[in-house]
Amino acid sequence: MAGGTQPRSGIIEGINVTPLVDIMLVLLVIFMVTTKLVDSPALPLDLPQASQSEQVQTVLAISITANGQLWVDGQATPEEALKQKTQEALARDPELRAVIQADGSVPHRLVISVLDRLKESGLTRVAFGTVQPPAASEGDERAKP
């Protein structure tokens, strides 16, 4: 039979990994050297100490009760006076933040109205205060999926 397959005398039985290991070791040495060069020592600095360890932020607390009454920093305030009070507080502290705490039964339009008054006065840092709900009891039907 012509052209048949005959066993070759120089068959490679496995892959020689020695050159691969040599290249990997060279790469490892290169990475170790360059990593040491990249790591520059820190400059010795003598930083000043602060007189207070904690920064105090001024917060304007705005509460809206279930009947729609507006309280600003613990004082009952008509909605029309909110803009003026906010501008006065901003004049004292330009970094002022407001936290709105509204009762769950307050209509959205009232909360949006308060947000609009704050925006008109120039106060843009506003957050909403919430409370952590109590852990759902076994008898609570809302906790069931």
Automatic annotation (TrEMBL):
Q: Name one GO cellular component term.
A: plasma membrane
Bilayer-crossing regions: 20-38
Q: Extract one GO BP annotation from the record.
A: protein transport
Cross-referenced Gene3D superfamilies, in alphabetical order?
3.30.420.270
Q: Which residues form the signal peptide?
A: none
GO molecular-function annotation terms? transmembrane transporter activity
Keywords from UniProt, A to Z, are: Cell membrane, Membrane, Protein transport, Transmembrane, Transmembrane helix, Transport
Q: Where in the cell is it found?
A: Cell membrane
Q: Which InterPro entries match?
A: ExbD
Q: Which family does it belong to?
A: Belongs to the ExbD/TolR family.
| UniProt-recorded name of the protein | Biopolymer transporter ExbD
